[in-house]
Each structure stands twice: as structure tokens, then as C-alpha cells.
Amino acid sequence: MSGGRGIVGGWSSSWGSGGRVSRRAFVTGTFASALAGAVPLLGGPPAAAASRPRAMVLRARPTTVSLGQRTVRTWTYNDEVPGPQIRVMAGERVRAKLVNDLPAATTVHWHGIRLDFPMDGAPGFSQEATQPGKTFEYDFTVPDPGTYFYHSHVGTQPDRGLYGTLVVLDPREPLEYDEEFTVVLDDWLDGIDGTPDDALARLNASTDHDDTLRSEALGGVAAEMAHPLYLVNGQAPDTPMTFRTAPGRVVRFRVINAAADTAFRVALGGHRMTVTHTDGFPCRPVNVDTFLIGMGERYDFLTRLDSGAFPLVAVAEGKRGRAFALVRTDRRAESPPSTVQVPELTERMLAYRDLEAPSSFDLPRPSRSITVTLGMRPSGNEWTMNDKVAGDHLRLRVDRGETVRLIVDNQSPMWHPMHLHGHTFQLRLPDGGGPRKDTVNVKPRQRVHLDVLADNPGEWMFHCHNLYHQEQGMMGAIGYGPARGNTGHRPQQHDRKRKRQR
Question: What is the pTM assigned to this prediction?
Fold first, then answer.
């Protein structure tokens, strides 16, 4: 934050009989450089309690969960969707014991965390997957405050319920706010439309593609499939999650996209948002009405809430559905329906050009560049990096201490949310600035420049966070020094002979 200050904007609002927001007045305020008693999601321990870390168990197992009015059989951590939230202070240790009670091998990947390589949970790279009936002890220090999450990194398991949130608090928090909510967005098909493995098999075998799933904001085709449900914190729109607080309070929302194949367009009815963080790292505050969040991305925003009940809407971009929750500051206010029109969704949208890291977070200028071309083979269901697929993956060599520029050139017909393990990069904008991130959306026929400081030795996955593109081959690695003969990620087998038309 510039000078440790931020600006929040929110619209006072009321609901008319038609269910639309009617605006009255724009509110602004400034925030001092002190944390004002952040309150965690769902009434957990106060922020100060995070200074007393404790060991925890993540038990991965089949279970039955309710997603609003639907009950499904799926795989979860500790019988919850999302799994339990982990809250620690920056510089503290996370100790998590994975107990695998699944019928398949699994891991836990700590998405966005600059952790020691053996703890990354990347099968074939940092560890062998934990077999059924076995355990694995994850023990690592979290160096950077911010909003993160964890999930399985084996096959299509992330498109089940195997994910949870990791919030790393800042002991010198520069923002002042009254409380916070964590918002986890997801697309869901497991137990409704078969399993994620079934969905992958359909993609691998099909010669067709649903070209109605389109988004101008994403440059064309937006997704591989329409999921039956879209969730906020495990709840479908028919029984929405409700975030309860009091009018006039300044709230920090931590928004995580844990979906497999869906970008979301997010807005809070009747309010503007001040975006303060992207992928855990601070950016200079920017006021917007809506933002587009790709799979694996996270955004934090602040807003001052008016009195009433307000829709928190996440439209499945390019699809025909939405995730939906309520933000309630008045218990007597009428609840808007899940189909409510939210004008903010079509107003000022956040763009990467709006985001700038404070100068103290700028990375050194690169000494060399490496081009990574994203493509699709004629089979139509093999996604490539420099014409290589997972199993025979692209390896980009770096040496410790250097800064390299990755020029990611998307020559494929779809957008890709590209994610780098174990590091954050700086997305370099034409003016030379840009935000620190670990996941970036790259549109078709677009190039982006990512500066990476090689300060964390290992063999780190660099892949598309569309789960199905990853499993169809779009998986590479950044490795330090000479190759060490790692086996790499092995995608699930699929038929590469049949062509999907696009």
C-alpha cells in the first residue's frame, strides 16, 4: 500500500420492488496503518490467536455433503467443503498431517506459498503421492502474508471437494478494517453429472466443443464445459451462504477461485470495491465495480457496508450460471433473489493494467528472456507448452539468484490461467510496473511478460490452472541447474487420435 493507506468506496443502497439496486450516495474513507481486529470466517479464533500455531490433521476421505438442496457423494478434507481454514501469522510454521483414507493416492499442494520444495505437494516433482492408508507430514514456514488456498494435485481430484483456505496474517497489517470474510468460489459436477474422471473422458473422446461458452473478456471460448452448480463456500444459490455483520462496518473480502474450469465475474450489489491485494500480494488500491477472477487467482477487496441485505454474485463467465451469496447487515431486510440484476457486473471492471505493486515489491530487472508458447496439437485435446506435453514436459532451466523474463505467448484458441509453484512473479506491464502474482490469465493471441526471481531452488510446476487443460498436457516446470531426472507429472491417459473441433 502506498504509505500504508488505502481508500474504500461503497454505494449506499436500497432494494426496489423489481429487485434492482437503487443508488443514493458514494462513500469514501481512508485507513490508518493498523489492523482493526480482523474477525475470521464463520466465527473462528481472533487474528491474535494465529500467533499460537498448532498441529492439525487433514483427513482425505469419501463422504456425503450437502450443497444447498443437493446431497452428493464426494471426496473432502475432514468431511467439509471447503476444508478447514488454516490461519497463521507470516513467518510461522504450518504443520499439517495428511491422512489418506481415499481409494486413490493423493497430495496437498499449498497454492501460492513460497515454501521449501519437498513440501509443495506436486506428484512426480516434489514428492511421491501418498498412497491409500498412508500419511504424510507437511511442515513449512509461510513467509508472506496474504490469501492462499490448498488442494489436491493428483489427477482430477481438485474438481471434487479436496480444497481449503490458508490465510496468512500480517503482523504489521497496514489496512484498517472491522472484520473479514473469506469467499471461495467453485464449479461443481461430482456426484451430479458423474465424476471429474468421467468429464475428462468425455472431453478426450469428443469431436465436439460447445462454442456457446464464450466471453469477450476472455477472448473467445471461455471454458470446456458447463458445470451443474456454482458454489460460494460450498453452498449453491438455492441455499446461499450468508455473511452477517453490521451496517457501516469496513469489511475485507478475501476471494479465492478454486474452480476447475470456470472464471467468475464478481460484484457486490449496491457497493463499489477497493481492490488491495492480488494473489496474496499488495497492490496500490483501485476502486472498481467488478472483477474477473481466473482459476487459481485471489483478490482481496475492502468496502464499507450499508444497511440491508446485498447480493454477492459471481457469474460463471461465458456460461449460463452463477454462484450467489448474501451479505446481511440488517436482519429485517428482505433478501434479494439469486437471479437479481446487479448493475455493477456491467460497469467498471478491474484490468491488470490497473494493478501496480508498491515499489518495495518490485523484482530486479531480468538478465535474459525465455519464450513459452502455449498451443494445441491437431488432435484438439492436447494442450502444449513449446509443443511439449506433461510426461515429456517442457523444463525451463534457471540458476539461483538470477531474474528471468518468461514471455508467455498464447497461440492456442483458448485462454489459460498460468500458475507457477514456489514463487511469485511480477507481471510486467508496458509502462514497466505491474503486480506481483502467481497466476495470470493469458488470452488467445496475447503475450504476457512475467519476471521471476530464482530464489527458491527446486523443480517447480508451471502449468495451466484449468484442471482439464493441465490433464490434457499443459504442464511444464522451472528447474534450477541441470535436470535431475525427475519423472514429472503424468496426466491421465486419454485418446489422442480423435479430434475435437473448435
Answer: 0.89
